[in-house]
UniProtKB/TrEMBL annotation:
This is methenyltetrahydrofolate cyclohydrolase. It comes from Carpinus fangiana. Residues 62-177 form the Tetrahydrofolate dehydrogenase/cyclohydrolase catalytic domain. One of its GO terms (biological process) is tetrahydrofolate interconversion. Keywords: Hydrolase, Membrane, Multifunctional enzyme, One-carbon metabolism, Oxidoreductase, Transmembrane, Transmembrane helix.
């Protein structure tokens, strides 16, 4: 590591020169004014019928890949214009602890997308046995790095590391995963706007709105309560004013709750969770 850093064992790849930071005790600076709320696109994409559920309801396949291509194309244009105006490209830093294959796969997908649209990337790789202090120092350094505009700490972390503590240290202004308590809290409270929204939940709502699905005033069911998908999705649906039921994946009879839900719906199409006969598996 260049610059006499105390981050022993950290491997940096990407954005270039890093500086040394030895403390994580200073809290991140909060912005005085939160930005405008995220407003998803309402461009419609076609639903493809894939069969008939019981009671005559039609299953539909949502072509998320084409929607993702549209979004990447739009963002690439925005980045080109911003770079032409400022001479700078947005920078994303990804912190990886250990060598989990699934984590590396997720990171590679993110890096390919960044490369496609013009976002500069940096990877900070730490050994699985790194200390919490070492990891916090890395995150603190990225908070202070002006070339880094977004930070992702790839989850899950090894068991000896406190995920909640780590995510709290990430600056909310760079918390692109939306897991910082400030961002999650603002998402949960009506009338407040988070700096970032968890991408999986944001993607769910984006898909529904692009398909022209009417959500407002409908009954919705969210299966699962994870902080990565379930809870933030429920917060978004509540902001959109739906009657919401959060259902545990371990509760029997959740298919009944899903069939009683009114949203999401598009014409005769109903997006729901269907239990395959004789199995515990669910498909949409």
């Amino acid at each position: 590591m260049r610059g006499g850093s105390s981050w022993v064992g950290v491997v940096w790849r990407g954005l270039g020169k890093k500086t040394s930071h030895s403390s994580y005790s200073s809290p991140p600076k909060y912005p005085s004014v939160l930005p405008d709320a995220w407003i998803p696109s309402t461009k419609h994409h076609r639903l493809q019928s894939s069969g008939i559920f019981p009671s005559g309801h039609t299953a539909a396949i949502i072509d998320g890949k084409s929607i993702a291509r549209d979004i990447r194309f739009r963002i690439a244009g925005e980045i080109r214009r911003a770079k032409a105006a400022t001479g700078k490209s947005p920078g994303l830093a990804v912190v990886l602890v250990g060598k989990r294959r699934d984590s590396k796969t997720c990171i590679n997908i993110k890096l390919r997308a960044c490369d496609e649209i013009g976002i500069a990337t940096l990877i900070a790789e730490l050994p699985e046995n790194c200390t919490e202090t070492e990891l916090l120092d890395v995150v603190s350094g990225l908070n202070e790095d002006p070339s880094v505009h977004g930070i992702i700490v790839q989850l899950p972390l090894p068991q000896h590391l406190d995920e909640e503590k780590i995510m709290t240290v990430v600056s909310p202004e760079k918390d692109v995963d939306g897991f910082h308590p400030l961002n999650m809290g603002n998402l949960a409270m009506r009338g407040r706007e988070p700096l970032f929204i968890p991408c999986a939940s944001k993607g769910c709502i984006e898909l529904l709105l692009r398909l022209g699905v009417e959500i407002v005033g409908k009954k919705s069911v969210v299966i699962g309560r994870s902080k990565i998908v379930g809870l933030p999705t429920s917060f978004l649906l509540q902001v959109i004013s739906t009657f919401l039921l959060i259902q545990s994946i371990f509760v029997s009879g959740c298919v009944i709750y899903c069939w009683s839900a009114e949203a999401p719906r598009n014409g005769q199409h109903r997006t729901c969770i269907h239990q395959k006969p004789g199995t515990d598996n669910f498909s949409s």
